[in-house]
Amino acid sequence: MTHAIDVRDLHKHFGNNEVLKGIDFTVEPGQVVCVIGPSGSGKSTLLRCVNLLETPTRGRVFVEGVEITDPDVDIDAVRRRIGMVFQQFNLFPHMSALQNVMIAQQRVLKRGRKEAEVVARENLEKVGVGAKCDARPAQLSGGQQQRVAIARALAMNPDLMLFDEPTSALDPELVGDVLTVMRKLAEEGMTMLVVTHEMGFARDVADRVVFMDGGVIVEDGPPSQVIGDPQHERTRAFLRRVLHPEG
Amino acid sequence: MADQPRTAEARPAPRGSGLSPRKKQRISRSIQYALLVAAVVAFFFYADWPSLAQNFAKLDVAEKALPDLFTIALKNTIVYAVGGFAVSFVFGLLLALMRLSSVKPYRWIAIVYIEIFRGLPALLIFLMITFLPLALPGFEVPGGTYGQGILGLGLVGSAYMAEVFRAGLQAVPKGQTEAARSLGMSSGRALVTVVIPQAIRMVIPPTTNQFVALLKDSSLVLFLGVSAEYVELAKFGNDLASQYANATPIMVAGVTYLIVTIPLGYLATRLEKR
């Protein structure tokens, strides 16, 4: 069976700073994989290498069997099948919520206006912001903005979704709404790679949890193991800090 | 009294050279007012009012300016300014995109153009335009005097607009491009759909100021050697002033500029606040 994501010996340098020091891992279709780890551990860079927002310095990345690190690959075509959700939402501020969800359907998938609007409304409804179609991003709360961003990605009918710390920029009381939407997606069988600090979400929803530190994968396994019974001291130290911040 | 804590004791304010700061300030302000009053009185006393009125505000000469002041001169000023602005807008955006291009020669061309045309006086550009037919025999700028004026203003304005657009394009967060690209848009598509519309919104206030600058620079059309139908405000005022040996038409032209430029200035300020 083809892996949804297959990363082999991935290295990434920013100048002299080696952020990823040889990453090997795979995500199977329908799996939800959460990547956890301290800040600066390279987890966001890893995620961004999967849709080539960062160009790997060395190594290969395959998405559904297509090598995206091949210089001849049509990266726009590959990205169409990969939804991406950012920490800072990155909605287009000059468009309404509805237009945000329609624009790539029209310009990239060449859907007609009517069809794009129907799909957009469906997806906005699905993430619980159907009533906010005409609002500009600036008029929405962070949680609503992030859900519009999820709808924008879903409207492209992606085969897999990447989430880059989707709740880290949110006020605590708004985190739940976004996580609920992500849970629903996971239950529907969406393939998801999620960089997150939400240990509860990782424990409940993920099929696998990957713990990264210092540019390498330290531990990779089911949440019951990586979070429930970590084998490595570095993982244990990290979890202690995250789960009991006040010691 | 004796058992009161010493720290609570009120101490006199420290005194420097005798005068308190407040008193010094009051004296300084009085001097400034006195100077102002003296200057105004002197101006009123020494100015030759009848002569000033005769030369700068002669009503019957001002009347001669109508209606051509509006129907020809102001109209042409606006034609030159709007035309020059349109050219600056398009080429300025193009130059800004070249300036930020990953293709080095494009960057060089844009930098050289911007440095030259921002560094030269606009007057020099207009003088060069009058010599174009000499350099290129048989060549004529399309649109006659309108074309020449718009070309001159466009050449200068493009350089300034390029810098304005560059600032606007760079102010659009990188995440916007990343979001567009991760939806499968090509880099060109992302630029047109996501980045440029936001950049244009951001540069509207400085762009309004640029339009005011072009409106004023349109007075340089004076140096193109203009026939009566193409005359703009400055030349119109100057010609009438020569004809009547009186400066009133220049004042009238000046007021007409202000009628347009002051509201535009306020508009730019209001747009900036939004």
Q: Please report the two chains with the greatest interface, counting residues with C-beta closer than 8 angstroms to the partner's C-beta.
A: A-B, 25 and 18 residues
Specify Rg of chain A, calculated over alpha carbons.
18 Å
The named CATH superfamily of chain B: MetI-like
Ranges of chain B with pLDDT <50 over ≥5 residues? none
What is the oligomer described by this structure? heterodimer
Structure summary, number of beta strands of chain B:
0
Portion of residues in beta strands of chain B equals under 5%
Gyration radius of chain B (Cα, Å) is 28 Å
Helices and strands of chain A, in order, run as EEEHEEHEHHHEHEHEEHH
Instruction: Kindly state the percentage of residues in helix of chain A.
Output: 25-40%
Q: In percent terms, what proportion of residues of chain A is strand?
A: 15-25%
Provide the residue-averaged pLDDT of chain B: 87
How would you describe this structure to a colleague?
- Chain A: One of its GO terms (molecular function) is ATP binding.
- The complex is a heterodimer of chains A (247) and B (274).
- Chain A is α/β, with parallel strands linked by helices and 247 residues long.
- Chain A has nine helices and ten strands.
- Chain A has helices at residues 43-50, 75-80, 97-107, 113-126, 142-154, 172-187, 199-205, 223-226, 233-243, and strands at 5-14, 17-27, 32-36, 58-63, 66-67, 82-85, 160-164, 191-195, 208-213, 216-221.
- In chain A, strands 6-7-8-3-9-10 form a six-stranded mixed sheet, with helices on both faces. Chain A has a four-stranded antiparallel sheet with strand order 2-1-4-5, with helices on one face.
- In chain A, strand 4 (58-63) and strand 5 (66-67) form a beta hairpin.
- Chain A is globular and about 55 Å long.
- The mean pLDDT of chain A is 94.
- By secondary structure, chain B is mostly helical.
- Chain B has helices at 21-46, 49-56, 59-64, 68-99, 104-119, 122-135, 144-171, 174-182, 187-217, 233-244, 248-273.
- In chain B, helix 4 (68-99) packs across helix 7, helix 4 (68-99) packs antiparallel against helix 10 and helix 9 runs antiparallel to helix 11.
